[in-house]
Amino acid sequence: MSYRARNSRGGRDERRRDLRKAVLAVGFLGIAVGTLAAWNAPATGYEISIYRATPTAFWAGALVAFAAAGAVCVMNPRDRLSGIGVLLGWLTTVLISGLPAVRSYRFHGSGDPMTHLGWAVDLRTGRLSFGDLFYPGGHGSAGLLAEAAGLETARAMLLFVAVLVGVYVLFVPLTVRALVDTPGAAVIAAFSGFMLLAFNNVSTRLMFHTYSLGVMFLPVVLYLLVRFLRSDREGLSTVDRLGGLNGTLLCVCLASLLIHPQVNLNVVILIGTIAVVHRLYTRRAPDHPMAAVRPLTGVVAVTAVCWAVWSLGHWQVFVAGSNVLDSAYGTVFGTQVAGQAVAETGDSAEGVGAGLPELFAKLFLVPAVYSAAALGAVAYSFLTLRDGSPDGGRSVVTYFGYAGLVLGPFFLLHFLGDVSEYFFRHLGFAVTLVTVIGAVGLHAAGDLLPRDWRSIARPIAVVVLVVALVVSLVAVFPSPYIYLPSSHVSDQEVNGYQNAIEYRDGAVQWSGIRSGPGRQFDALSPGERPPAANGNSTYTDAELRLQLDSPPGDLYFGVTARDVQRETIAYREFRYSRASLEALGSEPGLHHVRDNGGFDLYYLESGIATDGNGSEDGEGGDTGLDSGGTEAGGGDAETGGNVSDAAGDAAGITGVSSGSSRLSGAYTLRRGR
Prior knowledge:
- By secondary structure, the protein is mostly helical.
- The chain folds into three domains: 103 residues; 290 residues, no CATH class; 115 residues, no CATH class.
- It is 60% helix and 4% strand.
- The protein is built from 25 helices and six strands.
- It has a four-stranded mixed beta sheet. It has a two-stranded antiparallel sheet with strand order 1-2.
- Helix 9 packs antiparallel against helix 19 and helix 12 runs parallel beside helix 14.
- This is Glycosyltransferase RgtA/B/C/D-like domain-containing protein.
- Keywords: Membrane, Transmembrane, Transmembrane helix.
């Protein structure tokens, strides 16, 4: 090649590199501007969809960032700029997962996470000890983050979720790079990780849900497991064999135990299967590449013993085991049906105008494609791995295939009977494995293409990955798109319940739409949940009407903006009509005690039917207000919208300032005279 030709080619490479730098700059600028727009648009009330409520500028910036990252990586997946492109995609994914924190949500997660919030507060204030919790790892870590950064516990928990998502997205490509020592495979794995396929909004979610936290941590275990299996123990001292990767892998396995023992049990089954299969190969085919990996016996033994010691000391493991066995027994003998929760979900979906095929396409189509790619990777590895052939990570992929043969039936056991929702928890664990192995399969499929086709196939593959990325991320948060309400917990809901709980009559039963305020009591009231908080709940318009006409006793009835929007928007008035919910405030005999713009509290007295013949609103004492309180007939107990309620915990951890009540005099919610 002449000097002029070499110089011309060098000039083209330099211009191409400058173009990629410019594209990266546009991508970083896009996500920076979008994040600033989201930061300056905090939530002012309950949001049924975080997608619709977040400024369009953020989503446009995220799309530009992902497109820029994909374009830079497809041009050359092997240089430093490609790594910066992956960093851009990683940052964008973390910011999307952290939107509840970016947009100043009071909390995110209206079910289990509210209970976990109460436990985290109790752990931080010393009302609970570390060993009192079945899965204290996440709660303790969030508490440490709160103490170190001077944050409220609720906000620290939001940030902790975003941190763990960052860990998840980082270690997926690192695991694939440890399996397949080529940059292209790591790039495919990075974009696969950005999809967050493991979080299906059925039983795994992007919130402080402990099993989901365990799934977020799982790629760390997989990375160290792959590194350990592919490491060479020859020439290592005894100290190095016991420490180093061995000790580090054991530590992360035990960390997963503290985050969630069920995830750790799956890890024990995974590594235990690998250890057993390895033992068989070393005895029957010692020259096979499968026998050359490093043995896991010590790690398996210690992890299994620690799981047994920890788990058998907590009642939850016996309850979960009993539920699974009862469901299996009921399915075998015909008293229950397999996939009962799925069937019920299908019925509900049809009631709101959807169907299981539509939900499957939105939630599980992309994971299904990756499952096929993973199956192909395992089959290819198993069939091509022979004595004396180069390994190239194929032995580890094959070991994962063997582990799948054991984990699969164990997961399917949870599909039986009325515990079938547990299956979708385990599906999150399985999809994390599928994401890693599927990325290997997609890379291997690309290598099998004729060289002349690769220049055409590469940009097509990136476009497909970006489309799959968008399809996955539009369903990663619950929203009406997938017929679910957002899990946003608003300031108005927290403040309203905080004040109502503070001044309640402890003898009065609570009720609500679908459920009572037990979760709110867990989060906002220290100690044991009182029996009255569990609620005489209603599930349909007819049940609501019956409770109003014939109350079982005096009742507090809380209705939040989330309740109303969930029933009328997400569930399309399937069980409650908009008219019936909006008419609550005008029911005779149902006293409207409080209203702060996002939370309404009603007081219903037993023996007074709401048919227009009962006592009128506004009569002194009937509202359950003590002297000095605002009567229902003369105005709501809270006026002027959002208020800062009194009585936060001793450290102010719940975010409610002690002594800051703006109510017009002290009052007590109590039973009627």
